[in-house]
Amino acid sequence: MLLPPLISQTERHQIVGIRVFFAMDGVNREANNREKIDETEIDSKSSVEIRVLFFARARDLTGVADMPLEVPTGSTTQDCMEKIFSQFPSLKDIGGCIVLALNEEYVVDSAIVRNRDELAIIPPISGG
Amino acid sequence: MALSFEDKTLIEILDENCRIDLNKYVDSVRSPQSGAVATFAGTTRDTFDGKVVVELRYEAYVPMAVRRLKSICSSARSTWNLDSIAVAHRLGPVPVGDSSVFVAVSAVHRSDALDACKYIIDELKASVPIWKKEVYENGEVWKENCEFLERMGPSPSPSPSKGCCRSKVRVAEIDGPDHMESPEAETLDKGQNGKSVVDVARK
């Protein structure tokens, strides 16, 4: 897994403002989630359930566009990927060049996932 | 008439079969105070590496793509003195000759508009989660932007398959095996891909 500096130098200058924008988004998302699920019940659980999205070649290799994934509380995105790789060994074909996004932001492997997080498998992009 | 940042930044990810209306986006960035409108149109071309391209198919992680584009436009505004920005990207099948992406930037002076326009399309190709599959008469392949791969840098984990370039190509071997043997040639788009640049500047 790679940890790409996908935020450009120019964007870095603005990162404080961007983070605020994203953080507010996150708050809104959590507020929505609370309506659907009892937070106290989650805290007492020893595992969290996240949603995994597969795009482009990752979807072709796994045969699924998205799926739920249950991992122990405190698991990192790296832990999640190990579980996903064991479930879909064919995904290792592109393991060296995929990046991850957690809740619509590029992340490093050490990020801890929380209940109802959305983890996206991003193969090399080709927009434009 | 002071429009907010949001009002002056238009970002649209278009559904399948929606052609990009270039005039609509150019008009959306025009203003009396802007002496320059710089635009970039990315257009599907009919051949790649000697193979006939039938069409390109695009897909996106739409909410994240919009979020990244907002961030890119925001940093462009912090670097150059801009008036309005419009970015449109089409999804689904895009026939040869149609535009798949369009960027329009207005500014008081042309250098700001031109530089920001180039920055936005370069950043889009490097970090916005959109994918394109090139469909040939005898197969198809997921493309990979060199801007993305360059920003990833050298792989920190040794990979026996040398990145993701191997076994990516799914093209029937009617022209012999050489296409299968040279995935790098398939991979590096070089960012050219038949793009054309139109600069509409006015004093």
From TrEMBL, chain A:
Pathway it works in: Cofactor biosynthesis; molybdopterin biosynthesis
A matching Pfam family: ThiS
Keywords noted in UniProt: Cytoplasm, Molybdenum cofactor biosynthesis, Nucleotide-binding, Phosphoprotein
Protein's name in the database: Molybdopterin synthase sulfur carrier subunit
Modification type 1-thioglycine: residues: G128
Modified residues (Glycyl adenylate): G128
Subcellular location: Cytoplasm
Cross-referenced SUPFAM superfamilies: MoaD/ThiS
A molecular function GO annotation: nucleotide binding
Family named by the database record: Belongs to the MoaD family. MOCS2A subfamily.
A GO cellular component entry from the record: molybdopterin adenylyltransferase complex
Matching Gene3D superfamilies: 3.10.20.30
Function: Acts as a sulfur carrier required for molybdopterin biosynthesis. Component of the molybdopterin synthase complex that catalyzes the conversion of precursor Z into molybdopterin by mediating the incorporation of 2 sulfur atoms into precursor Z to generate a dithiolene group. In the complex, serves as sulfur donor by being thiocarboxylated (-COSH) at its C-terminus by MOCS3. After interaction with MOCS2B, the sulfur is then transferred to precursor Z to form molybdopterin.
Any one GO BP annotation for this protein: Mo-molybdopterin cofactor biosynthetic process
Record note on quaternary structure: Heterotetramer; composed of 2 small (MOCS2A) and 2 large (MOCS2B) subunits.
Location (main, coarse): cytoplasm
Domain of life the protein comes from: Eukaryota
Modifications made to the protein after synthesis: C-terminal thiocarboxylation occurs in 2 steps, it is first acyl-adenylated (-COAMP) via the hesA/moeB/thiF part of MOCS3, then thiocarboxylated (-COSH) via the rhodanese domain of MOCS3.
TrEMBL record, chain B:
Biological classification of the source: Eukaryota, Viridiplantae, Streptophyta, Embryophyta, Tracheophyta
Pathway: Cofactor biosynthesis; molybdopterin biosynthesis
Sequence segments annotated as region (Disordered): 175-203
Keywords, in A-Z order: Cytoplasm, Molybdenum cofactor biosynthesis, Transferase
GO annotation, biological process: Mo-molybdopterin cofactor biosynthetic process
Keyword Transferase: yes
Name the UniProt record assigns to this protein: Molybdopterin synthase catalytic subunit
Function: Catalytic subunit of the molybdopterin synthase complex, a complex that catalyzes the conversion of precursor Z into molybdopterin. Acts by mediating the incorporation of 2 sulfur atoms from thiocarboxylated MOCS2A into precursor Z to generate a dithiolene group.
PANTHER family reported for this sequence: MOLYBDOPTERIN SYNTHASE RELATED
Reactions performed catalytically: 2 [molybdopterin-synthase sulfur-carrier protein]-C-terminal-Gly-aminoethanethioate + cyclic pyranopterin phosphate + H2O = molybdopterin + 2 [molybdopterin-synthase sulfur-carrier protein]-C-terminal Gly-Gly + 2 H(+)
Protein origin, superkingdom: Eukaryota
Major localisation: cytoplasm
The enzyme's E.C. designation: 2.8.1.12
Compartment(s) of residence: Cytoplasm
Coiled coil: none
